[in-house]
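Hi team,

As requested, here is the filled-out complex form for the flavin mononucleotide run. I kept the field names the same as last time so the parser does not choke. Let me know if anything looks off before we queue the next batch.

— J.
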Amino acid sequence: MPFEDYRAYLDAVEGIGELKLVRGADTKSDIGPITEITAWSPEHPLILFDDIAGYPAGWRIAAHSFDSYQRMRLIHGFPDGLRGRALTLWWKEKLDNYVPVPPRMVDSGPVLDVVQTGDEVDLTQFPAPLWHADDGGPYLATGGASILRDPDTGRLNVGCYRGMLYDRNTLGHHLAGGHNGQVIRDKYFERGQNCPVVISLGNDPAFTLAGAENVGFGTSELEYGGFLRGAPFELVEGPHTGLPMPATAEVVLEGEILHPDHEDKRLEGPWGEGAGYYASAFAQPPVRVHACYRRHDPIVLGEPTLRFRNRGAAGGFAQTARRWHLLERSGLEGIRGVAQSGPYLVISVKQHYSGHALRIADYAMAGLADRPPRYLVLVDDDIDPYNPALVNWAISTRVDPAAQVHIGRDRWCNVVNPAGLTPAKRVIEDYTIGTMIIDACKPFRWRFDWEKMFSHSDIPEQLRAQTAEKWADKLGPLITAPKPA
Ligand SMILES: Cc1cc2nc3c(=O)[nH]c(=O)nc-3n(C[C@H](O)[C@H](O)[C@H](O)COP(=O)(O)O)c2cc1C
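And here is what came back:
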């Protein structure tokens, strides 16, 4: 169901009983900790902070917008009860039938209720929390999304990038290496130009979710977001940059990422990353904000990264579905299932020839829908990749590590995980790291011998059923329980 704007979404969230209003919290010492500890419980409510100490009533921060099964249902519209593999498959089939829904340009919208330009711009008017105790400063942009235009192709790109508040008209903006935003920004820099940008701080949930998905270079998140939303986004043209901005947004900042020859880089961070560590502060080109557009009583989205955020029973299905969809589009035969299981991406494969499973793994390791998985596990098609016990059984019994573990080196990664990122690599901003493919498939070359040498010792289903029937009176539920899948 398309939501007109974030407020319509909030009404729907309230309607399903998942909205919690918190009044009187402080940006320095309350909002960050409340957001963190409430994120640990499964299916926690959306928290709306109002009457924030030192800010006008009605200037709100909304946290946990996407953190429950029912809230994801509101946005994606999947049938109640779908979980795990069925839910991933449901979204994958949508992606298989993807039809871009292009945005519509309009002349006006509520985001233009208040327009401030030049010296009137004052970013400190917005509540910007210290989300984690040792962050380098308050962060204003954590849950919205930014739009940039590729200067080579003219295509628009949307991404969620955090923004640290420096002063009245300057923000830090973290465009991680390898994300399309970074590539586009640096194309401007190579031309000696600043990079135009608009940063939305609060918007229809489909806008943030489309921005957060790695849809591939050149594919428009604006069109994908329209598909996700079920209706085109309405956009107004920003007069300073010519970039479009969501007409129904809560707040939009329009400006430029400054070329390092025009203005010195500034330290961005430290920031409490989702991996559970502070990454150090890095010099980044700052954003100079030329204009600020907002509603009278804006709602700023707050989605700080948190180590133990529990996104509820639906968490992660969209990215897994996209990886599965892209893998199938490779034209490679035999892909039976794709799942995220703990730290592993697991792919189940029906092998048809020697080298088949690793060929699929090599394709997945290109980093479909974001960075390559650090650990990729290949399993045969008798293993449900959604069942961790079976995946672990395959790893334990079908892998000779000396032959079936393949290490990749210097693969695309980021700064947030300390593993493998030596101090020397950090200095030169080399965020590459190793990867591992665990080929837990029965080796294809053994296909004529494996079953003879190692037939399964589990009780056959027929014997289990016979035994259950014969001994039902004496043993009851002890033996009638189905065999664990
Ligand atoms: C709440 C949130 C915050 C994020 N913060 C950042 C960030 O600060 N920097 C970044 O590069 N990616 C961040 N990401 C991930 C990117 O938005 C995501 O990978 C996106 O697909 C990148 O888009 P791009 O490849 O078009 O640049 C964040 C995602 C979410 C949902």
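Two things worth flagging: The chain has a mean pLDDT of 95. The CA atoms of residues 11 and 19 lie 9 Å apart.

Thanks,
J.
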